[in-house]
Amino acid sequence: MASSNKSDRRNAVDKIRRDQKRADQRQGRIIVGVCVLVAAVIIGIAAFKPVTDWWALRSLSDKSLAQIGEGAKACQPRVIKAATGVQDHVQPGVEVKYADTPPAFGQHEVAPDSITRKLYTEKDRPRVEMLVHNLEHGYTILWYDETIADDKDQMRELRAIADKLQGEDDYRMKFKAVPWLKADGKAFPKGQHVAFSHWAKTAAEEDAKIAAAAKVTDSAGVWTYCSGVSGAALKDFMATYPYLNSPEPTAG
């Protein structure tokens, strides 16, 4: 009888152990499942923006540069001003006070930004002083303000424009789109949220009257201000002031 009682107790203990083991296994599977689900959500969130950006750009991929954004009427007539600062370098980190918003010429850092990157945001934009060196080398820079940065549709158009102007070997693609920040200086003229700037060796023939009125006879800073993103206006600006019309066009 005593032996039977011991056997019953042992069986009961074994059952408790088996039940606990199964419960532990179920809990482990639940924890693993939750971890997998959380990881999937994190990966999905990380992948969501690149995927949506790619999908949004598909609608613009078949459009020409001139068809992206608003028409050229969104932009004002060009502004021209006598330029100075050719080969006037400062060391990295030195702050230069530019009189114009945004600058088209002036003192600049000893090295320009690489041609590789076409579009920047506030988080990773090079210093203005570095970008002015790019202007000396014939780049056209599209500067955009906070209004554009906060507008997902216009940022999509900027990404599409930057995609159209990709290229490292073709200097006709000397282009960058960068944000103009409040810390950089004064705001653009009222109602204008985009500015093109170029450092020209000479004013273009079609701008002779503007240059004469501004008493520009040599190197010139050139601007166009726009109320929004306009691929048509940018195309015309870059055709009128190509990279070759700059103080140092053959430099990268």
Automatic annotation (TrEMBL):
Keywords linked to the UniProt accession: Membrane, Transmembrane, Transmembrane helix
Membrane-spanning segments: 30-48
Superkingdom of origin: Bacteria
Location of the region described as Disordered in the Swiss-Prot/TrEMBL record: 1-20
Protein name in the entry: DUF3105 domain-containing protein
